[in-house]
């Protein structure tokens, strides 16, 4: 009877550790991908870490896949702190959300600006570099 109890306890422990290790590896892959995207877009990854924010089922390529959302923070000019999100399905990135410049409203335009009414010009924040 003692052997069955020990075996049950060992199996239960393995059932907890295996998914935890899988999530740890997935988080490491997400961190690597966020670092690559920050370099690509000229952003600074703050705290050098990502955190799991959400998990959902999503149909990708005709198959139902588990998709994980990781949140992180970046800086555009070194003086700010902006949030971003990375969606991972399997081992690959399925979505990315990075901070953008603020839109100038039509009321903020100088008089006689000359732009058509259906155009909303972009203006960077003071001292901001381009993302591209």
Word description of this protein:
With 132 residues, this protein is α+β, with helices and mostly antiparallel strands. The protein has one domain (2-108). The chain has one helix and four strands. The chain has one helix spanning 2-41; strands at 44-60, 63-75, 82-89, 92-97. A four-stranded antiparallel sheet has the order 1-2-3-4, with helices on one face. A hairpin with a 6-residue loop joins strand 2 (63-75) and strand 3. The chain starts with a helix and ends in a 35-residue tail after the last strand.
Q: What's the quick description here?
A:
The chain is of the alpha+beta class. It has one helix spanning 2-41, and strands at 44-60, 63-75, 82-89, 92-97.
Q: Return the average pLDDT rounded to an integer.
A: 80
- The proportion of strand residues reads 25-35%
Q: What's the overall geometry?
A: elongated
How many DSSP H or I helices?
A: 1
Order of helices and strands: HEEEE
Relative helix content: 25-40%
What is the structural class? alpha+beta
Largest sheet: 4 strands, antiparallel
Q: What is the alpha-carbon Rg in Å?
A: 22 Å
Would you report the number of β strands? 4
Spatially, the strands of the biggest sheet line up as: 1-2-3-4
When the domains are counted, the total is: 1
Which spans of ≥5 residues are poorly predicted at pLDDT below 50?
none
Termini gap: 66 Å
